[in-house]
Design brief:
The complex is a heterodimer of chains A (369) and B (321). With 369 residues, chain A is an alpha/beta fold. Chain A is built from 12 helices and 12 strands. Chain A starts with a helix and ends in a 21-residue tail after the last helix. The chains are: A alpha/beta (369), B mainly alpha (321).
């Protein structure tokens, strides 16, 4: 709760400062504060580049940050030059770290961040804008927070909509099941947005397959061991009724495969999501029918690149159209036929990306429901 | 609690009673729950958790706590996987040496844990929690966030080879449970754990080197965490930093639900077996009868409170901190 309290206090202070400033007849100063000192000093010569994220234990975030490091190296700096702010799943720590870094760098900062949860995006963005730093966000922000409301300082937001790709993998699965039988879904942490969207994708596809029953959907918390146990219990509950498995991500699929292996079941149709290297190999081996690659390496790199190039004045965010400020990240469907080729070109040798092609691989402007 | 059923009897048999009631409940709700195949599934899920919980049982009997299991399990699993692949990648080659190596790694982490706790006089709660973080960080450093797959058919036989319907890993866990029981009841060290937990001052006054017992306890726990790590890798064929995830919650819950008192001196490895089975029967049974996951967490929470209430003699505790 202290996070909320802090947030409210900070909001109060902002408002008070604004009132004081206006009352003192320095409205101009306040206006500059509102529209961002970024305008006053359009280019920062050598900004500190930072990535703020959950932690590196998770393979997904590991990929994201490796992209950030690749970008830093492309500038001719060692990869240690990237400052890591690790929030360990705490929004409060995320905000506190950003503020500390803003103070230390005096606002000469290009920040890429996932703010851990959506409400935390606003205080982070406001703190950056106030100090004249440049920030690009990934994944989390509330629907009413937009980069174009902050002049140049809130550079961009990238996210992924998982509903469509998850629906596509579901269709592949349901076709492989012959359009009949029973499917189980093992999901992510129940309240996570991607978990909700991926389950919804399956439900959308099921509408066209009336002979397939959704036997159960149970959260497996993105965790291999939990997925393993949930799948085992599903096998007890439904036995041979299960003719297909829809997994919310690759780590879950690994647990499912092992639960099936323990029972000697080898040919169960399974689809998954995320396109981790081992999952792609399993797709090539036809153990998994399809997975979706969201190119976290590129996502992590380009988010840092956007903040950096806006800070150094390579481009001016406020002159870009809205679809360049809020956009969906790339998705690539990986099937058995192209898995090997995909693996060689994307995973075994990480491609050298042009970190100034900001929007090439992106997937259109974010739509709100 | 006058009459035929004394408080002691109730405390002693309540966990087993709870387990039987749970099994009966789930079996009535869904007859397939009681099938041998499902029993095997519960046993597979329980085996790694049982090893970790047995390890921490020794510590809790001493009246201390060890929260380093997640880090220790991750490091042991990752070191095992690297060594196993480097030395040949199959149990039939020199790679079998990776198995004892993992146990040694567990023991070393436990030793450091114990020394930090005893020599630096840091409460076991804080010392072990910190060591756990160090372990998780070290495992991450080793893997760089990657997963290591162990494909060897012989090692994976832990899961795929079955005797009487149960995979080999269940028998391995049972073997180590007997070893733990032997240490607990037939060795001086085991008796000393109870002595320290029952009354540290008295044990010290009787000439017992309490510090040494503590350090040995943490080492022993580390070895059992490593066994748990090996079974966890055997179960899913992957060693990674996340291998240790959730073991803290499951093992401490199991020990407490099994009736080992957090104050020390009471309980033992058989209680822990019952506790682990209760936790896993709930985990499996809830899905089998189709109750949502959050109910499962709620039920476990209530069970923990009930277990602590039952195993605590409130007359002897003047205040709770």
């Amino acid at each position: 709760m202290s996070f909320i309290k802090k947030f409210i206090e900070q909001e109060k202070v902002n408002r008070r400062n604004f009132l004081f400033a206006t009352a003192a007849g320095v409205g101009g100063f306040a206006a500059a504060g509102m529209f961002g000192p970024g305008m006053a000093r359009a280019a920062i010569q050598d900004p500190t580049i930072a990535w703020s994220y959950r932690n590196r234990t998770n393979p997904y975030w590991n990929e994201i940050v490796s992209g950030g490091e690749a970008f830093v190296e492309s500038l001719g700096m060692p990869k240690d030059a990237l400052v890591h702010l690790i929030n360990e799943g705490s929004s409060e720590k995320s905000l506190a770290d950003v503020k500390a870094l803003l103070a230390r760098t005096n606002g000469d900062l290009a920040l890429a961040i996932d703010t851990n949860d959506a409400p935390n995006a606003r205080p982070v963005v406001e703190a950056c804008a106030q100090s004249g730093a440049y920030v690009s966000t990934l994944w989390n922000k509330t629907d009413d927070l937009h980069p174009w409301d902050f002049g140049d300082n809130y550079v961009s937001h990238m996210s992924w909509s998982d509903e469509k790709p998850a629906e596509e993998t579901a269709r592949i699965l349901l076709e492989a099941m012959g359009g009949k039988g029973g499917v189980v879904h093992l999901g992510g942490i129940a309240s996570n947005n991607p978990a909700i969207e991926r389950l919804q994708g399956l439900k959308n596809a099921l509408v066209d397959y009336p002979d397939v029953e959704l036997l159960a959907a149970e959260p497996a918390d993105w965790d291999t061991q939990k997925a393993n146990q949930v799948m085992s219990a599903f096998l007890t509950r439904f036995g041979d009724e299960i003719t297909g498995v829809h997994c919310a991500n690759d780590t879950i699929a690994y647990g499912v495969l092992e639960a099936l292996r323990a029972e000697g079941i080898e040919d169960m149709p399974i689809v998954s999501y995320d396109g981790n290297p081992q999952a792609v190999q399993l797709v090539a081996d036809k153990k998994i029918l399809a997975t979706v690659f969201t190119n976290p390496h590129w996502g992590g790199g380009i988010t840092a690149a956007l903040a950096y190039h806006a800070a150094t004045g390579t481009f001016k965010p406020s002159e870009e159209p809205n679809e360049h400020r809020e956009f969906y990240g790339p998705t690539i469907m990986v099937r058995p036929d192209d898995a090997i080729e995909f693996k060689t070109s994307y995973l075994d040798n990480v491609p050298t990306y042009d970190w100034q092609d900001f929007w090439g691989p992106s997937n259109g402007q974010i739509q709100y429901k | 609690m006058d009459g035929i059923v004394t408080r002691e009897t109730l405390v002693k048999w309540a966990p087993l009673l709870v387990l039987l009631v749970l099994i009966l409940f789930f079996a009535v709700m869904e007859p397939r729950f009681i099938s041998v195949r499902n029993m095997a599934r519960i046993a597979i899920a329980s085996a790694p958790a049982l090893m970790v919980a047995v390890g921490v049982t020794f510590i809790i009997i001493m009246g201390s706590i060890d929260l380093s299991m997640e880090g220790t399990v991750s490091v042991s699993a990752v070191v095992f996987a690297f060594a196993f692949l480097a030395m040949g990648g199959t149990v039939l080659s020199w790679a079998w040496l990776a198995l004892p190596l993992a146990l040694i790694v567990g023991a070393v982490i436990g030793l450091i844990n114990g020394l930090v706790h005893v020599r630096l006089r840091i409460p076991s709660f804080m010392a072990s929690l910190a060591m756990g973080f160090v372990g998780t960080g070290f495992a991450l450093l080793l893997t760089g966030g990657d997963r290591i797959r162990i494909e060897d058919e012989v090692f994976r036989g832990l899961l795929t080879e079955r005797w009487f319907g149960f995979p080999v890993m269940c028998y391995v866990a049972l073997l180590f449970l007997f070893i733990a029981w032997f240490i607990q009841s037939r060795t001086t060290l085991g008796r000393n754990f109870y002595a320290v937990g029952g009354g540290e001052e008295l044990a010290h006054a009787s000439g017992l080197n309490v510090d040494r017992v503590r350090v040995m306890g943490f080492m022993l726990a580390g070895v059992f965490y490593a066994v748990g790590a090996l079974l966890a890798v055997g179960r899913i064929g992957i060693a990674e930093t996340a291998t240790g995830n959730n073991f803290m919650f499951i093992s401490i819950t199991s020990v407490v639900v099994g009736g080992t008192a957090l104050w020390g001196g009471i309980g033992g490895v058989w209680n822990t077996l019952i506790g682990v089975l209760i936790v896993n029967v709930i985990g499996n049974g809830m899905v089998v009868i189709g109750l949502p996951g959050y109910v499962q967490d709620g039920v476990l929470g209530l069970l923990v409170i009930t277990a602590v209430v039952l195993s605590t003699d409130r007359k002897s505790v003047s205040f709770v901190k």
